[in-house]
Amino acid sequence: MPVADGHPLEADHALLLEAVSEAGELAKSLFERGVETWDKPDNTPVTEADIAVDKLLYETLSRARPDYGWLSEETQENPERRDFKRVWIVDPIDGTKGFVRGTDQWCIAAALVEDGVPLLGVIINPTRGEVFETAAGEGAYCNGKRLTASAPSIVPGCHLIMHTSILHSKKWAKPWPEIKLSMQTSMALRLCRVAQGEADGTVAVSGKSDWDLAAADLLVQEAGGRVTNLTGSPMRYNGPETRHHGIVGAGNAFHDQLLVHTCGWKRNT
Questions:
Q1: Per residue in 31-70, pLDDT tens?
Q2: Which H/E stretch holds residue 233?
Q3: pTM of the complete model
Q4: Same domain, 44 and 114
């Protein structure tokens, strides 16, 4: 069974940051030039940029760490990834719809996961010049500035990144109070805004995948927050199932208050 051979985490961090930075430059050049777009079998969009960034990251990271597994939105599933202790988990373009529309609501997100738990995360938003990075136990940063999640005392009046239609859905067991809402097409960037304290939390009820979450999950944790499912269970990555049904991200104390509402979601009604 292939396993990691004990590469120092600092070296992996430097490798990941350099690779994602290079991928960010490539993605930005393609964004500015314009790219071909088509729909995948699940009717979600994909572009030349998704494929080009995926190829660059795979070649760079896998060549340097052949003893690590690989999981990416744009690479065909390989069940052998689960045989590796450490796995790169990558979303070449998170927020492809934002990319296609010419907005700044997209990013490149990449994480290193060991035994289901993120160790490293790098998220780059090339159009805004934002470089988010984190390592387990080392804090969360954007362009060198340490991040801290917000800590509102109550839910009424808080700022959540969440679809308006979801807020007013009849599937909630308990109605939500008046809150401020905003929205972004990239799940990773939603969690980045929580880590920055620009939003108090984010709630999603639709399915999200490992590559949407792993890097930003660690960023939020290192900023003093949590990312769980709607009932409060933490995420595990690189399992047999890479899809997660419902996400809550917020600072630690406020997260508990959000769970009072989110645990009542009636998913199958």
A1: 999 999 999 888 888 999 999 999 999 999 999 999 999 9
A2: none
A3: 0.95
A4: yes
